[in-house]
Amino acid sequence: MKKHPIYGRATGISPKEWWKEVVIKTMEPYYPTVPETLPEMLWTHFSTKKAYELSEGATPFLQNIRHLKKIAYETRSRKLNWGFKSVTVGVVTNSDDRVVDVLKALDVGVIYRTVSSPPSNAGETNQNASISPRDGVSIVQDEDFYDERRQWEAGVLDFVTTSYAVGVEKPDKAIFDAALASARGYLREIYNDDSGRFFWIHVGDEAEKDVIGPMRAGGVAVLYDTKRKEGELERMISIDGVGVDCACMVVKDLREMLETLEVMEFMDCYRGLGWMREPLPTAAPIKELSKKD
Question: What is the superkingdom listed in this entry's lineage (predicted)?
């Protein structure tokens, strides 16, 4: 809603207040009097797993990541010789913090949440203490993660960064910077690794938000498209319909991302478009041009 961008964050209202106004404005043309209970009912519905489902392949992907984390740990301990000493998985989403509770309801554990400023308890040593990544954001440990009654059968995410928490939305470079700061904070907390050196990939289903944005932030972008054509390995992206500006990998199933871990050193051609031009003033929407290999 343009009046209150970023789920109300930009104008100081709560996501729940934002949601109520959206429901009323949407329903008013059809119902002269919107039932008072409707916004609350819809808010509750879209705060639970009833309104969502994990994409096909997400659960086995996260379970395989758990295995790769173990291999990386053994490499860090010099018991194995893999190419990576850690694997960190996070979610960057244009949403409010309900997404964390929805993920947990879908049996996906979340270790840390990104917040835009260090909480007052920064520096405490209990399990909910925050860690400041020195980049304008902090990560706060989710209070339910270490509940021994939960097994998180679908898998575990190391952190979740929402647009409401940091005050900007994809494709703004700043939200990816906040996610990277969260990843650095996670590595410092878990592995005492302050080098800041890592290779990062962002996977998403919208060309503008999930390809152009992360590539401008210096990362590798991969387009997720469940309707990808047979044999299509990459897609050409034009930011305004005038010429081709970049290519990105395209996957149909998240499990395909596991294969990229073996070929990351060859993926620089998909990385780091900080130089990318801005769209022309009369720009058409970002276009995707299919290409078969």
Answer: Eukaryota
